[in-house]
Amino acid sequence: MAKARFPSAQGQAGFGSAGAAGAIAPAPGVSPSIATTDSVAAPVSVAPLFSPDGLSGSAAFDADSPTPWLTWWSHGAGNSGAVPGLQLSPEKLLELQQAFVSRLSGLWTDFVEHPERTAEPIKDGRFADRAWQESSLAAFMARAYLLGAEFLGEMAAAIDAEPKVKARLRFSISQWLDATAPSNFLAFNPKAQRRLLETRGESLAAGLHNLLADVAKGRISQVDESAFEIGKNVATTEGAVVFENDLMQLIQYKPLTSSVRVRPFLLVPPCINKFYILDLQPENSYIRYCVERGNTVFVLSWRNPKEDQGQLGWDDYVERGPIAAIDVVRRITGAHQVNALGFCVGGTLIATAIAVMLARGDDPIASLTLLTSLLDFEDSGILDIFIDEAHVKMREHTLGAGGLMPGRDLANTFSSLRANDLVWNYVINNYLEGQRPPAFDLLYWNADSTNLPGPMYAWYLRNTYLENNLRVPNRLRCCGQAVDLGRIRVPTYVFGAREDHIVPWRGAYACARVLTGVPAGSLRFVLGASGHIAGTINPPSKNRRSYWVIDEPTGALADTAGSTATPAVPSAQQWLDAATEHAGSWWPHWDRWLEPFADGLRAAPASYGSPDYPAIEPAPGRYVKEKA
Question: What residues pair up with 602 in beta bridges, in sequence order?
Fold first, then answer.
């Protein structure tokens, strides 16, 4: 498996430039590191790297001789103390600078003497249009930008700092580089300039109109929202709301087969998004697929909380969400147990709910499926760089006692993780080129953000991402019970996505370290291709992508298992080395795994709900239509 890396345009780093001084500030709460002296020179602070006064007093400067550089570093930057915690070897810096100057000099020579070389296609989507090759100046700017990005990435990678500080540095530089790409400016973007001329200025007027509309809206438009309506051309699988409280609606879907599996199936989506990512269109609807396979499907639809719900906490979401839903599903169907699935944060919620119910003496589920979910937050990916004690305390101070975390802020955070695709792409399309964004169902869902109650959000940040308390048996109390995920002893299917930047697949795999009560051979881990959404929503009809699984269970590597049978869960890399890749969707594999827990077949119900829980309104219900 290829190691995760930044694209070449971004190098491998983060950025921390600050005005004329060029200072890179350490992350809050990070202890300063102490520079030590070696035989040549001490590691140095990178703060004054681009200071205009850095070489003052040097009578002669020779790029091929390290003497002036080392003198500067030892008497200037090396003793500045400007940036405690970030150290860089002067020899390494000199090596990187010389390589960069050499490459930039070669590019300049080609631009002046051989412009046809700079006009060759560039392997970067931002500069793929022919206009970038037809203009030698534009091609030079693009290539110079990419060289600079590579240099900054290499320099940040060479800095000696704590891993979390380096991760923040890499993220910061990627944000800065994404923002300063020449493609983002009309003066430097030949494609946008060509459209300006072709439309005789109309594209500029349209772009200004789009910009003003987005300023009024408070966010960049990623999709033509007028093309979609919930319940009309997204979230169209037929069903009815059979229960609701102040926090969620429970939807039961109409059977599409004459007989159905006896044991009902409950799906808990994330509370930070709308559920219809699982029901966008009939051809890619996971919900519809589950119904077509003969399941009696219930889905929890979270409400978009209002100002008067700003006091709700994590316990409220667990008790009034999955616990209430499990209780109602069992009452409607008469089943003693349900097959349960949690997606993303929904997996964290359903696992917590099951542990609470088990502590109360209830045994509510027969099987558990976790899709791109975290129970152990040790490897929580890029989101971890945002979260430290200072950030969590700030959120607790501003939101812990009440209020709402705006869905728009959460959406902006997630968009920033893929800024080229979800921010600057639309700056170019909407404003520079004056075009309307496309009509795309996935992006319509992505723009349909959801608020979160402040106390719930602050609790979640501290006890999962910051302190990772959920993985420790009985450290947390929820709904009046000590939470021990090791109490869960049912067959469990865990899915991770190989390129997921929100829930890294190794983090999803770590569920095996937490679900210690699952019997040997009963925890199946499956790895899908692509990312958080595309990897999960991969219908068989498309015959796309692939998944990895261990076909014939043999020993500890088979499916991974709880520590009751396997004292040491194999590492994620050990599992991957033993797994086999299969073409196509993972959905049929999951369905074959789920089938033995169906408890037989029965005639499909003729109506929704039950006498005690009659249908309230047609699916998808009104809660999902409420806007943040």
Answer: 260
Identify the CA nearest to 626 among candidates 158, 305, 197.
305
Distance CA 300, CA 328 (A): 11
Closest by Cα among 190, 485, 521, 199 to 349 = 485
- Phi first, then psi: give them for residue 38, nearest 5 degrees: -115, -165
CA-nearest of 596, 541, 620, 598 to 259 is 598
269, 278 Cβ separation under 8 angstroms: yes
Fold of 239-406+451-625: Rossmann fold (3.40.50)
The residue whose two tokens read 């679900």 is 515
Residue 403 CA: distances (Å) to CA of 189, 312, 453, 458: 43, 9, 6, 11
Span 85-124, pLDDT tens digits: 568 888 888 899 999 999 999 999 988 888 877 778 888 9
Contacts of 491 (CB under 8 A, 6+ apart): 366, 367, 368, 518, 519, 522, 523, 524, 597
Number of H helices, E strands in the chain: 22, 17
16 touches 169 (CB < 8 A): yes
Over residues 179-214, the pLDDT tens digits come to: 999 999 999 999 999 999 999 999 999 999 999 999
Q: Break the chain into its structural domains and give their ranges.
A: 87-184, 239-406+451-625
**All residues at 6 or more sequence positions from 205 whose CB lies less than 8 Å from its CB, including other chains:** 434
Give the separation between CA 18 and CA 620, rounded to whole angstroms.
49
The predicted structure's pLDDT at residue 67: 45
Cβ within 8 Å of residue 421, ≥6 positions away: none
3-class state of residue 526 by DSSP: strand
What tens digit of pLDDT does each residue of 116-137 get? 777 788 889 999 999 998 998 9
Amino acid at 346: G
Catalytic residues: 344
Query: Nearest to residue 317, comparing CAs of 270, 247, 372?
Result: 247
